[in-house]
Amino acid sequence: MSYYIGIDLGTSAVKICLIDEKGNLIKEDSRSYEWIQPKDGWKEISTKTWWDCTCDGIKSLLDGVDSTKIKGVGVTGQMHSLVLLDQDGRSIRPVIMWNDTRTAPLLSELKEIVKGTEVEYLDNMITTGSPVANILWVKKNEYENFKKIRKFLIGPDYIVYRLTGTYGTDYCEASTSSMYDTYNKCWSSVIREYIGFSEEVYPEVKESTKIAGRILPNIAKELGLSEEVVVIIGTGDNPASSIPTGCLGKNYPVFSMGTSGVLMFPRDQLDYSAKGKNILFSFDKNCCKILVQGVIQSCGSSYSWWNDNILNCDYYMDDESLIDYKNLGKGEVLFYPHLSGDKTIYADPLLRGAFVGIGTSTSKSEMTLAVMEGIAFALRQLSEEMCLSDISLKELRVIGGGSKNHLWMQVLSDVMKTKIVQLDGKGGAGYGVALLTAYACGEIQSPDKISESIESIKECFYPRSYNMKLYDVKYEKYKKIHDALLQIR
What we know:
Blueprint: E1 3-9, E2 13-20, E3 25-32, E4 44-45, H1 47-62, E5 70-77, E6 82-85, E7 95-96, H2 107-114, H3 131-141, H4 143-148, E8 151-154, H5 155-164, E9 169-170, H6 171-175, E10 180-181, E11 186-187, H7 189-195, E12 205-206, E13 211-214, H8 217-223, E14 230-232, H9 237-242, H10 247-250, E15 254-257, E16 261-267, E17 277-284, E18 287-296, H11 300-310, E19 334-336, E20 354-356, H12 364-385, E21 395-399, H13 406-416, E22 419-423, H14 428-440, H15 447-452, E23 457-461, H16 465-478, H17 481-488
Parallel strand pairs: 1-5, 5-14, 9-12, 15-21, 21-22
Antiparallel strand pairs: 1-2, 2-3, 4-7, 6-8, 10-11, 13-14, 15-16, 16-18, 17-18, 19-20, 22-23
Helix pairs in contact: 11-12, 12-13
């Protein structure tokens, strides 16, 4: 029997899991940490915090486990967070995290730089938190630190470096850095010349399953691991989370219903004219995919807000005693779910939500159903804006907390006009990168077999003609809410 470790370097905790060669989840551990906010909008963390918590988590995970069976380690985690290293491989300053917003005043400058160049499409990718923006901020505000930079890495890459001594990154982290020419698969010379970096500062871009190296002898001894354990290059948390669902490997579109709602699907060609983030991902040198991602900012958080903050109760409607499934789509109440702005459809952080059509006879069950419907309508609009074709949408796989609600799954099926496949969604990003490691070590024979070996379908929901027609009418009304809200903002 062989074991594989998956490390997920999250925003507020590192989560670590152990699986066997069949994909069974054996054990999990986590270590929480806090980032610091020196000024408004700043989000930073020490690399020492990351490393210490990772080591503590691995040691705890291995307690009572035969560590001689561990063959490989994979690392995933928060994308974009920037690590700057000096000539000795030491961190120059605290990590600037993905959710840091200090660079807002620099964005127009960066967008102007790429205008009219071969990487003009980066204009839509450059945001606060982008590594390119954070590097430019360091150059303008901490020039002494900037002069010390000999290598930059993205969050998970740093843990791989500490484990193996190897500098590197994968196509996912490179393609979302706003410094990478995704068409030609190389670091952009336009950005490099403007920032003022030499080519040696950039990490080499490799496929996610590439072996970065064996674990360093001193680290192996500290963690209680064999020096023969290999560490893969790894990838960002979004591709890692999609691997167990069959999104990458078997090309299924997936909707993750967490605090935010994330729609992911693979595409054969880059398309910057459609909404959504284009993320490159490579299982191996012969297989480079495009994972497209779009977000509904308030998904599970809208449902929690309504139940917990407004109704002040655990009112999770999910049976026919509260609502007749046959009548879905007949209600007059509409809910607009963008309570905390929108990133993908309108790119409007000031957008807010609304209830429309309520009356004195409106019940809490009608309003709760409207919340579910509103998020379903937002998903339909998101899929249209991202140009998810009807062919690709023969079925939609759904994971996350919201997927546990049977009524909501039927609403999604009727609104989206497609089969909804409810998955158990176990393990998350750490589990996904552990499976990726098993594949890299030859335990799983091909990318399409990764999800196949562990796939767990709980239930399927199918669209119904009568309810689909009702929701078509309601959806057309829903789309008019945005312009109405702009008129009164």
